[in-house]
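Order emerges. One example.
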Amino acid sequence: MEYRRLGASGLKVPALSFGAGTFGGRGPLFGAWGNTDAREARRLVDICLDAGITMFDTADVYSGGASEEVLGEAIKGRRDHVIVSTKTSLPMGDGPGDAGSSRSRLITACEDALRRLGTDYIDLFQLHAFDAGTPIEEVLSTLDDLVRAGKVRYLGISNFSGWQAMKSLSIAERYGHPRYAAHQVYYSLIGRDYEWELMPLGLDQGLGALVWSPLGWGRLTGKVRRGQPLPATSRLHHTADYGPPVEDEYVYRVVDALDEIAQETGKNIPQIALNWLLQRPTVSSVIIGARNEEQLRQNLGAVDWTLTPEQMAKLNAASSETAPYPYFPYQRQEGFARLNPPVSDAVRMHAA
């Protein structure tokens, strides 16, 4: 397994990490994702560790804390061999203190996560969403306290807009607080909005992308196809309204290109979609999920090989969409492009 730096930090993370959203199985959304118990989870963790996947991502909101509990049981006795990543800020109840990133909520959420995970420190503690009602200075000073106390080692964010991330980084620099190292984002061949602003921001500011839902909310499994009904077993029957919207024809166009490359490579559609992400700028780790051992082993086939430049170009063309203003002039007009080279060119310039 390839290991990469998490953004500009010193933490090395595997190119693939495991998402524990299927652990626990409580509630309408997470129950549809999966209901892996501690025994099954331990087996999946065994397979991950054998393959070099050492980072496991969860959140307090996943199955109301049950995901953290199951993950804690699954890693018991080998805590020093894994990287634990969890998230907080989304509502855990209806009370006024059950959501957000206030000082009180963050301290309580951290203590609760430590208890459920059965550990005394969290490797990566992330804000699951931006809290517009809490001053950023309060958020960052609290996270600084948690780091200084040894309860948290690295910090990250998830689902922030560009201005929210940049303002937070600027305030952290002003007051000498720890900077965010990671941004957990939605990014896939059928969801490339990340590239318009957040990817250039990540490159400029050293934010490593941790990619969630890399298979487009389950649409790039190879089971969603033009002219065919959605399989009866697809979780999209229950979860489509929770996830990022996408037009059917767009999905079919991308799947057609994936089919062509599958014929050339002998790889399946999910493996190709994951491999494409692993070659994209700023991506530190792609988070894969699995409801069972078979799914996990299939996803592991995304590493130890590389799509050719021609195959990458084919997928880029099939999945390309016109960016909204103010981004589209920089993609389509020469004068704008001369002043702002594409991110891929900027990566090469940065490396040089």
